[in-house]
Amino acid sequence: MITDEVKNLISQAKNIYVIPAENSEEAVPCALALFYTLKHLNKNVNIVIDNFPEKLNFLVPSLDFISYPRNFVISIPASVAEVSQVYYEKSEENLKIHLTLDKGTIKKDNISFYYADAKPDLIITLGIKDFRNELENKLNQFAFLMESDILNIDNSVQYNRNFGKINLIKDSSLSEIVLSLAKSILEPTNTISTNTEQVALNNTFISKESATCLLSALIIYTDNFKNNKTNSGVLESASILMKAGADREKIIAELYKANSQTKQQELISALFAKLAEQNLEINQENILKYLEN
Questions:
Q1: If exposure means fewest CB atoms within 10 Å of the residue's CB, which of 63, 115, 183, 209 is most exposed?
Q2: DSSP annotation of 120
Q3: What does the alpha-carbon distance between residue 43 and residue 149 come to, in Å, rounded to a whole number?
Q4: Beta bridge partners of 101
Q5: Strand residue runs (E) in the chain
Q6: What is the pLDDT of residues 7-29, one digit of tens each?
């Protein structure tokens, strides 16, 4: 069950970083589902991932969804002047920034300008068991991550370190947890009107893009609904996602494309080897004869 505390944490955050476990194939499409969901709530969203799986490229957001919120920074060295107060005046024509100096003077050459990524108000992790150990390299690059609240989503009840301000840990697929979260935070009154196709589900909404990502994650989690992780909850979630517009056949074709191509190459290689063993020329006639037999 998604609590009001979880909904408030997301509601109050403006800049959100989503970090999936890179050793979990299911976590990445779930992170993309959250990306779409949070963008519909007008949040600034970044996904932090080093190696994006090639087979999931079909889920990557279009440029219409991607934005790059950045802070414009004005920097003055402390050695040049001591600034005690900053305020601004804003009009229709311009913006004036006033600095009160206690010591020193500021020249044009002392001032530098640059853009910086907005620091997150909230970090959502997916499938990560231990925040510090698994993200050690990223923490060196994004040191400010440690200053943010963390919503920890995982399905490893036994091994998760419960490092978040709020921990959503459940023995199920990550997809089911994220679907439950999306359904709880996308109330009709809070849903941003977009040209993205959406469907109503028990008085909530989920986008076609989010549904496609979550169904992809479910197919990965259950090996296309063939392994022993396939249960009634998984099938019910899959049904909801397909009603929301997720195309199961298209997803399967994309996810298993590489495997199909590999198998095809293996069959061709085996065919050529058999013909060579029989000292037969590799041509259309001999290939057809072999296939008929």
A1: 63
A2: P
A3: 16
A4: 83
A5: 15-20, 44-47, 70-75, 81-90, 95-104, 112-117, 122-126, 149-154, 166-169, 198-201, 204-207
A6: 999 999 999 999 999 889 999 99
Distance, CA of 71 to CA of 188 (rounded, Å): 31
**Domain end: 117, 149, 182, which one?**
117
Q: Please state, in angstroms and rounded to a whole number, the distance separating the CA atoms of residues 135 and 161.
A: 14
Region for 162 from its dihedrals, namely left if φ exceeds 0, alpha if ψ lies in -120 to 50, beta otherwise: left
Q: Do 124 and 159 have their domain in common?
A: yes
Is residue 90 located within the same domain as residue 210?
Answer: no
48 confidence band (pLDDT: 50, 70, 90): confident
pLDDT, tens digit, for every residue of 99-108? 888 888 888 8
For residue 257, give the 3-state DSSP assignment: helix
Domain span at residue 109 reads 70-117
Residue at a domain's end among 117, 148, 179:
117
Residues of the chain above pLDDT 90, percent: 43
Distance CA 207, CA 181 (A): 13
Q: Are residues 197 and 230 in the same domain?
A: yes
Residue among 76, 56, 102 at smallest CA distance from 215 = 56
| pLDDT single digits (tens) 203-228 | 346 899 999 999 999 999 999 999 99
